[in-house]
Amino acid sequence: MNLTPNVEGFGQDDQSWLASAHGTDNAKTITLDTSAFTAGTHYPNGYFPSGLPLGKITATGKYGPYNNASSDGTEVLAGFLVTAIAAPSVNTIDPQGAMLWHGAVVEAKLPVAVDSAGKTDVAGRISFF
Q1: Would you state the pLDDT for residue 9?
Q2: pTM of the model
């Protein structure tokens, strides 16, 4: 058994997209499907950024990047990644994180824009400012 502390650093987490703390206290625990993301697009700095729009992949129950043009379940916006998560070195490791599924966000500060269809998906649960 190894009880040595492990410290991981990947820059400052930018949560300026959160319009309030409402909803952060009961964020949903999720698993990201790393293979569904593109390294240079979704985690160019070695981590999945806070505020990343997510959709639930129907076949696996894991989460990938929201994409209204998909047909695997990720075409429905489910919520936003609450805190940044280090991206694994291989796309077969799927990290866990927390998803904001209700609350308020500052649209202009999201790392990836959300289209009108996505806003409709979360209407009544997430407000955009």
Answers
A1: 58
A2: 0.90
